[in-house]
Amino acid sequence: MIELQHIKKRYTEQDEAVIKDVTVSITPGEFFVMVGPSGSGKSTILRMIAGLESITGGELLIDGERMNDLPPKSRHLSMVFQNYALYPNMTVSENIVFGLKSRKVDRATQFQRLSDALTMVDLTDFSSRYPRELSGGQRQRVALARSIVSGADIILMDEPLSNLDAQLRESMRYEIKALQRKLGITVIYVTHDQTEAMTMGDRVMILNDGIVQQIGTPIQLYQVPENTFVAKFFGTPKMNVIPGVTDWQNHGVAINTPFDPDALVGIRPQAAHVNQENKDDLAISLWLASMTYIGSDTLLFGTINNRDETVQFKIKGMANLSPQQYVTIYVSREDLYYFDLAGQALATVGV
């Protein structure tokens, strides 16, 4: 069990805290993801867990033991960095067992762990090669194998796939997740990519400006966002959040909300359709500025009631519409989200 209890981080007494009262418990064998935009504090928290950054407030416990002042080597964990951190003058095998040699682990154990790790990451035939002779995905697997042979029950990963191309990044997501399940280890994974968070995490913590916005399973975060930041950050395309007032002169959207006087209304792009399906569907007059076909779906871009911000809707199939005109989009009222003017959730879907 890893416990962060009211963790804070500030670099000087005069500075504002960059990590502000983070509390979370991570269970053994969990794949826990920290996600947020650049500068949200996710990597700082990971480095505090690793012992690479000092903790200026709160407590870090691993299996009930206070870790705040212990050096990294005493925390029984390993870390996979964004740049892999491989030694260019060492072979794959030498890179993988380097930590074991430093700890003076006996040669028989080194060989057995190396053989097992190479098999797990499918690099047995590459054991004598140097990092420069490997692809990006293969170098990432070497870094994973090095963490595996350490025998640590906890592996920290700091944006390990950010340097890979999109296709390789997708395949590596499944490889890392499958390996984690096979080994039963705890993984704390940092990313700015919400797609990685949704597809890999058992639970996800969304951060912004050093503050925890919400913690939950990917389904919980997607279906029941606690605020507009989570609603717009989690999900692709992002949720449209528009005023739900009925004052058209002030560029409100004519939606009769159950809240008085005003509220923000959230609409997932994929909740829209071009044909009315229920008599009480919300009808939205959209100025269709442009549209894009993406195979099985059509993306619509436009504005509502002359507002400045662009909204986006995702229609199934090839929509028979033409841009540069008004079109009517329908949304079931059960698919509406409501937030107060400060951005906090007012009710669950369909109120």
Short note summarizing the structure:
This protein is an alpha+beta fold and 351 residues long. It is built from eight helices and 19 strands. Helix content is 24%, strand content 30%.
Q: Superfamily at the CATH H level of the largest domain?
A: P-loop containing nucleotide triphosphate hydrolases
Radius of gyration based on Cα positions:
24 Å
| Mean pLDDT rating | 87
What is the number of helical segments per DSSP (H or I, 4+ residues)? Answer: 8
State the low-pLDDT regions, or none.
247-251
Count of spatially separate domains:
2
CATH topology of the largest domain: Rossmann fold
Tell me the structural class.
alpha+beta
Rough outline = globular
Beta-strand content: 25-35%
- CATH architecture classification of the largest domain: 3-Layer(aba) Sandwich
Adjacency order of strands in the biggest sheet? 6-7-8-3-9-10
CATH class of the largest domain: Alpha Beta
Order of helices and strands: EEEHEEEHHHEHEHEEHHEEEEEEEEE
How many strands appear in the DSSP assignment?
19
What is the first-to-last residue Cα distance?
38 Å
Percent helix range: 10-25%
Major β-sheet profile:
6 strands, mixed
Structure, explained:
It is a single chain. This protein is an alpha+beta fold and about 350 residues long. The chain folds into 2 domains: about 1-225, P-loop containing nucleotide triphosphate hydrolases (Rossmann fold); about 240-345, Beta Barrel (OB fold (Dihydrolipoamide Acetyltransferase, E2P)), CATH 2.40.50. About 25% of the residues lie in helices and about 30% in strands. Helix 2 (about 90-100) packs across helix 3 and helix 2 runs parallel beside helix 4.
